[in-house]
Amino acid sequence: MYSSKTQIALAFVYWVRQEYRNVSIFWVHASNAERFSQAFFQMAETCKIPGHNDPETNVLPLVKTWLEREDQGPWLMVIDNADDAEIFFGSDTATAHGWGGSLDGPAVEGMLDKFIPICSHGAVLVTTRNKQTGIKLTRGHNLVEVGPMSREESGQLIRKRLEGDDTTDAVQMSLLSSRLEHVPLAMVQAAAFIQENSLTVGKYVRLLEQGDDNLVELLSQSFHEEGIESSTPIAVTTAWIVSFTQIHKQHPCASKLLSLMSFFDRHSIPKLFLASYWQDEHHHQRHQQQRQTDPTTGTVELEKALGVLKAFSFVAESEIDESLNMHRLTQLVMRKWLITKGEAGTWGSIALSILSYLFPCGEYENWTTCRSFLPHVYAILSRLDFSSSADDILAKATLMHAAALFLLYKQQQWNKAEELQVQAVEIRTRVLGAEHPDTMNSMANLALAYINQGRWAKAVEQFTQIIATHKRILGTEHPATLVCMNNLAAIYQNQGDWAKAEEQFTQIVATQKKILGAEHPTTLMCMANLAGTYIDQGRWKEAEKLSAQVVDTRRRVLGAEHPETVMTIANLASAYRMQGQLKEAEERFIEVIEIFKRVLDAEHPYTLISIGNLAATYTNQGRYKEAESLEVHVMEMNKRLLGPEHPHTLTSIVNLASTYANQGRYKEAESLEVHVMEMNKRVRGPEHPYTLTSMENLAFTLKGQGRDEEAISLMNECVQLRERAFGLENPGTCSSRTTLNLWERQRESLRRPAFVARMVTECINRGSRLRRN
Length: 773
Known about the structure:
There is one protein chain. The chain is mainly alpha-helical. It contains 34 helices and 6 strands. Strands 1-2-3 form a 3-stranded parallel β-sheet. It has a 3-stranded antiparallel β-sheet with strand order 4-6-5. Strand 5 and strand 6 (about 325) form a beta hairpin.
């Protein structure tokens, strides 16, 4: 079921497909940012675009770049229902946090227009109710306005839908289209209802005229949702009420499904949601009846109920997956009808319960499911009043907690993850208590969001509190306690407080060896982390010894080509490189790259990181051209696969800049480092550790060019930011301050000979003047 603009777009698509069979066609639902992103993900998956399986890939620029490639054939992209200008171009009220921000990953509002591909071999067709949005998206070119249907066109639509009904009265059809305000959507549904129930057009018109005036007035005036135009004809809601009432009486099972679906996002509603409800409903009925029924009966009845809804054009089957679509007016009127009947709270609670139960944890293997469920999370959270039962409130917290984990680990929408997790913590604290395991779990995940935002002091405070509570309630050796201790140690390591991190990792490793055993994967992971602190402190031999031990054990326990084993080999190679054992490091890095290419993928982040490490080894060997070639490759791959703002991309740019500086190509290095610094300031903030590191890199490049005053000024700014963000005694702060003090002493030492020379000259001149006198 489609509105007229979409129907026109479909007709054009069918014509293109018939006339130009070599043209690829892509359909993008653009009603919100999540739907836009989901369509691009499906494109990437269907077309097997290289890199789409990478868990850290930003799919939007990946698809855009792929479509714009010159070796692609002709294509047509239809962007349907692009009504909201803010998701494409932002607004004056958009901020860096929450729904309107541009910092929370690829699928954010206010940025989508830059991901629409533009090239000579492709075309884009946009449908929208918002003329301003259409003008902006088309740059004012080739804009076609679709006006309202005329009386003649409405009559043609009704006749076509009722084709084969010889009893149709032309006068009654004209009256029907008039009563429905010539709105195509309402007329299509009316025709489906007439055919399904073997009614005459005159009987349907009389049903419309018998509707409750008070109910119609309530639905047409007070029923409001953002994006629905105030001019929506009253007859549209009347048509739905007639159909809903009839289905409710004759097909109660179908009515229940429609009630449930009205609270999810209208696109791609998984049949799994409906099946879950259906199973619970039938299990409850069987329990009450105390008898066993055929287990296949539920599935058959579910499909029959959906068949009724599809016959009425209330839902449509997706051609892509096992999901259903609803028109938004169907949802809006249905929810209002439920409110009028006093059943909205019941069905909203059921929808919330189903989604909170089915939304999976944020493990890598569940990311595709999480991505498809996320729009329904936003729909549920925006449509329900949670002030009722404790069960609903806790289900909301569970759903927010699960969605926040996915946003944190896959989507990198750290601000949105924080927003959801803060609410989950507040709810669980109020309902369950501050020390309940679920509350503590949400608090720990909130701390992880702080880490990714670079708010390390806040994360340390949070983990310290959690660890103290875990130790008191669960004990010092409980797995939950050790996990939080590991995370806290990782923060210390990232802050440069390596001694503290080492102490924490050492304690965790000892405890895990005792509880889990020396060869348990979790123990080995913490041992690898401990080896990382040795590398950070320059204790290469200890790092080499421990890394070699972990490599040998992981080879035996996990296998020689298990990713964790190979990652440890890479850490061992880094220890070799730092000790100047460059030949051994080079051999190990080449081994790692070959395994990762074979086991993972040539474009997998682990593979690209390892190539970057090999490039660093070449730099240490003075093989700058080879290093540069690899680093350019890694940088370009990261840009294409992950996006220009991803941390891996920025790191690869920094590495390339370092290679330029080593070759004395300071201007090129400076250009890249300025880009990285400004990008970090905008994306992460001026006090984020990555931002401060990029400032330091630029200061060193300026110093290398002899621009001492600029270098000292930038390093001084960096020291002040570090002192404010991390404190005076932070190792990173101390290191930056030491560099600043050294440069200032060098500057003074260079000034001092000139000062002495001036004093000697003045004394000589003074003596000469005295003698002349």
